[in-house]
Amino acid sequence: MFFHAPRDIYGPELLRMFIDELGGPKKVHKYLDVSERTVWHWLSTGRVPRAAVLALFWESRWGRSQIFTEQVNEIRLLYQHVCILQDQYQRAKDMVAGLRAIHAGSANEPIFEELPTISATPAPTFSAESIPPATHDTTPPQSKASPAASISPRATQAMQALSRLRAAAH
Fold this sequence. Notes:
Elements: H1 12-22, H2 25-32, H3 36-45, H4 50-59, H5 61-101, H6 109-113, H7 153-169
Helix pairs in contact: 1-4, 2-3, 4-5
């Protein structure tokens, strides 16, 4: 199992630093659900439970900074995945167009009739203010093919996945 907590977060010095940042023992003891006397005991003896120090770490500016950094890195990674998938999708569409140009018919041509055009991916900004709320419609686009062409459930699932990918790209 992968743990995100830093290994070197423990000890009375860090506890004191986090307590000072978060408002002192009078506020911190309520957050940790212990008595104020217990917090003072930890500070005076130097024997501090690591779990208490870690809990305060994640509430401090250092812990929140680590969380934000991991989120930004994951957003960047997902953005790159979206760009790669868009490129692969466009290449596949070009191959289908090339096969149509040489009149090589295929059994799944009605599916390719429905492939939507994916708009250009916006330039990355990766700041907290630029992340919009997820309010995209994930329903598949309406079919423009003739009503006689039937679409398999697998093709419908693929179209829904493509719509989710498109929504993630915006």
